[in-house]
Amino acid sequence: MTSDIDGPQAWIIVVAVFWNNAHHWGILSSYGVFLAYFTSHSTFMGSRTLDYAFIGGLAASQALMISPLVTILHHRLGLRMTMAFGVILETAALLGASWSTKIWHLYLSQGVCFGWGLGIQYLSTTFLIPQWFDKNRSLAAGICTAGSGTGGLIYSLATHAMLVQFGIPWSYRILAIIQLVVNAICVLVIRDRNSQEVGAYQMPKINFRLYLRYEMWLFIGWSFFSVMGFMVIWFSLATYGRSIGLTSTQGSIATAVMNVGQMFGRPAVGLLSDRIGRINIAAFATCISGLLCLLLWVFARTYASLISFALLAGIFFGTFWTVVGPVAAEVVGLNDLQSGLAIMWLTCAIPATFGEAIGLELRTSGLREYLGTQLFTGFMYVGAFLCLVLLRSWKLRRHELDSLTTSATSTDVGTEEMAVVVHRPGKFYEDVRYVTSWGKV
């Protein structure tokens, strides 16, 4: 099976994961169009705008919170059965949403059930690409995550057309049928290489001692702020378009253009991260995302300027989902990668749940209704960028210490000379001291 690494079978897996992402993350991306429709129509009696915002955030947060459950299902059922269960849940969620008559029906279907179906499928495929690729690992991961943008493009336009033509119930039913067919095919194609070479899954334990490490808190901070900003832009673009006088069609086009940016931006980020450095490219894209919010979105008062922001933001603001795995490996190492990601997903369930709700609550009445939302989003990305700056400094220091250790151990020294590496787990520093027979430190 070693010959399969970077081979044709590996790229078939990439295609399957690409379209699988398109039919769960892409459908969730279209919720911004549903949100704009819900807020402009009295769809559910007694519901508030905040309710609709929570539903979209709830779906994303549930997808992240169930990572421990997904691990257990893998152990008990295997990859394909686990993913098939996710497809069934997603289908049931969309069909349930189509028959919803009260807002709490939508909470359970579109929010909780869809989030579980999405999470089971997405988290099942996050560890596939490292199994099948060596040289082109980041490029393959970028192509897979670009499926979210492709699906978002398709469903942002298709959902608006279906809402106009068929209304809410049949729009949900059509989405349920399409995703069921496509995702079922993807499940049949996807293969887990580890199960063939290593054998049955071993039940991993989450290493919560990672919380004691300085670099882990920087990684969590970057993830937390990035997800918070991402959720606001992801779901707010269509409703923001309505606030500046654009039509619902123009709002859905803006969301579609944002997803076009993700289609091309995510593979490019994956390719560049292998050459420039994972933390470097993540810091650059995060900084640009913050600047776009503060310098372009704030002044986007026309259709053309909003389209420009949507395209540029789409290229950069979804970088987190492309590089989060490689950056986590840089921070905690391969042995603790699954624990580090599980901890991060659980923590990021908070901004995923409340990000869009906070963004909508920051709106004010008047000409600049979304100014508070825009500033909040921009500063979230600025905070994420600062975390990466500190993380990069830590990584550079770590490289220096490693190089000094390697140099010291490879130097031909006398028997009375020795190199001592002192590492204090849980502390915010790491010391390397070189002790010789002369007492030099």
Automatic annotation (TrEMBL):
Say if the entry is tagged with keyword Membrane.
Answer: yes
Indicate the transmembrane segments per the record.
12-38, 50-70, 82-101, 107-127, 139-158, 170-190, 211-237, 281-300, 306-329, 341-359, 371-391
Q: How does it sit in the membrane?
A: Multi-pass membrane protein
Query: Which keywords does UniProt give here?
Result: Membrane, Transmembrane, Transmembrane helix
Origin: domain of life: Eukaryota
Q: Which GO terms describe its molecular function?
A: transmembrane transporter activity
**Subcellular location(s) per record:** Membrane
Principal location class = membrane
Supply one GO CC term from the record. membrane
Q: Which family does it belong to?
A: Belongs to the major facilitator superfamily. Monocarboxylate porter (TC 2.A.1.13) family.
PANTHER family cross-referenced by the UniProt entry: MONOCARBOXYLATE TRANSPORTER (PTHR11360), TRANSPORTER MCH2-RELATED (PTHR11360:SF315)
Name the UniProt record assigns to this protein: Major facilitator superfamily (MFS) profile domain-containing protein
Q: Which organism is it from?
A: Penicillium coprophilum
Q: What is the lineage of its organism?
A: Eukaryota, Fungi, Dikarya, Ascomycota, Pezizomycotina
